[in-house]
Backbone:
């Protein structure tokens, strides 16, 4: 039996929530009890006041400490083990973990505040302070109701089926899979075929998959803490479009608008590889038709991959493993298509602002929703040529700082683009 005692100015507010359904049954079965203590009964003055104006001035009223402490001490006299909890907007956020912890107590005292706050000296008479979320309530009563409900459900016998609580959301840290009941078709919407299949193994896998997807979509913060298998962890984080990057050294413009081949640089290879590795880029193509420059690029990579550098700096080796040197953009597109069975969606970037740009947010959303491969093209020199632009499916908006100086190194632009499209 878990005893709740609620100290409140409005005991009537609890009648409805405690008088129905699960909490009503839990009390009838003596699995929990709820005693409502009217704070007004612990006032000491003729007017039975519970609030007063704040020292130091300011609007609103402050809840007096004396009646609250009188009520708490009276309760503590009878039960030394009672855990006294103040519901307050500045408390620690109440979670399922707290509910599980509190379900092991024998007596919980919930103190509900009203007005703009409570005299700070109450702190010495309470064990902990809980909030139920980042929004403003009119008082602690709805929060106390929430705590009683969430805690009671975890007490053995309160729910009809012992497993229902465990099966629900948050138990394994994931959101719930979608549920359906009769009819099989409603307003043209059919129940997923798998649920009618009778194949319980398949149903279980489908539900797990849907839980993972909905959690990734709506509460990616939960995934980090959820209990996933290693395989699930990999799958759920790759259930997005694979993103390829190509750094084009040809065809690009020089500063006079001539189509040229630029030189391959050590730093562009290294730095974009490291940013790419950090943001989960699938592969980084360095495109140049010049054999001598290809050789140079390979030498740089080989030094860090297999040569002395591989022992000197292991993390750099991991990043450089993403790099491939290719002759032309067409070779890159064909290679991705061969591997993924689908032509990549080509996205070009440019420092110049133009009409009809796809925003970072739009592309980010596409990358999250889709599974077809994307190829992001980065230009060297004075930018990608018109010919490359005409091959593209999307033109990404340019990066704009607060000044009119706009001369980012391509590796800096790459890092910013990766963060905007793929950063947490
Ligand atoms: C001056 C700023 N306000 C804090 C946000 C004052 C204030 C507003 C509302 C002080 C107390 C309240 C009443 N709220 C609660 O007692 C409360 C609460 C909440 O407002 N949000 C989330 N959880 C809780 S638990 C208790």
Residues:
């Amino acid at each position: 039996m878990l005893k709740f005692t609620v100290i409140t100015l409005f005991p009537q507010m609890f009648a409805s929530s405690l008088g129905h359904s699960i909490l009503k049954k839990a009390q009838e079965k003596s699995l929990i009890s709820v005693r409502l203590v009217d704070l007004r009964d612990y006032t000491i003055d003729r007017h039975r006041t519970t609030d007063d104006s704040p020292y130091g001035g300011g609007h609103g009223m402050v809840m007096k400490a004396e009646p609250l402490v009188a009520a708490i001490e009276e309760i503590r006299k009878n039960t030394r083990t009672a855990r006294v909890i103040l519901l307050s907007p500045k408390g620690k956020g109440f979670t399922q973990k707290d509910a599980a912890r509190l379900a092991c107590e024998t007596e919980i005292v919930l103190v509900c505040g009203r007005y703009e706050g409570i005299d700070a000296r109450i702190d010495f008479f309470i064990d902990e302070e809980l909030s139920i979320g980042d929004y403003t309530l009119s008082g602690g009563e709805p929060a106390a109701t929430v705590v009683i409900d969430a805690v009671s459900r975890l007490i053995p016998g309160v729910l009809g089926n012992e497993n229902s609580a465990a099966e629900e959301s948050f138990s394994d840290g994931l959101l719930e899979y979608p549920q359906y009941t009769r009819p099989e078709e409603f307003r043209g919407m059919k129940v997923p075929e798998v649920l009618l299949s009778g194949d319980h193994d398949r149903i279980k896998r489908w539900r797990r998959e849907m839980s993972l997807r909905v959690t990734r979509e709506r509460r990616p913060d939960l995934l980090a803490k959820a209990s996933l298998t290693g395989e699930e962890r990999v799958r759920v984080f790759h259930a997005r479009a694979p993103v390829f990057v190509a750094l084009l050294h040809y065809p690009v413009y020089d500063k006079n608008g001539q189509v040229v081949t630029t030189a391959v640089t050590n730093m562009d290879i290294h730095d974009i590889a490291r940013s790419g590795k950090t943001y989960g880029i699938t592969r980084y193509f360095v495109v140049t038709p010049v054999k001598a420059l290809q050789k140079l690029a390979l030498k740089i990579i080989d030094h860090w991959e297999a040569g002395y550098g591989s022992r000197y700096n292991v993390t750099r080796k991991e990043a450089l493993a993403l790099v491939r040197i290719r002759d032309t953009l067409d070779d890159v597109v064909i290679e991705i298509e061969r591997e993924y069975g689908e032509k990549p969606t080509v996205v070009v970037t440019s420092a110049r602002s133009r009409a009809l740009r796809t925003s970072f947010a739009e592309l980010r959303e596409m990358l999250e929703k889709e599974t077809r491969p994307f190829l992001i093209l980065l230009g060297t020199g004075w930018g990608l040529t018109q010919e490359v632009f005409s091959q593209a499916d999307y033109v990404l908006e340019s990066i704009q700082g607060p000044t009119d100086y706009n001369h980012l190194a391509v590796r800096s632009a790459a890092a910013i683009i990766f963060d905007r499209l793929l950063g947490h």
In short: The longest strand covers residues 83-93.
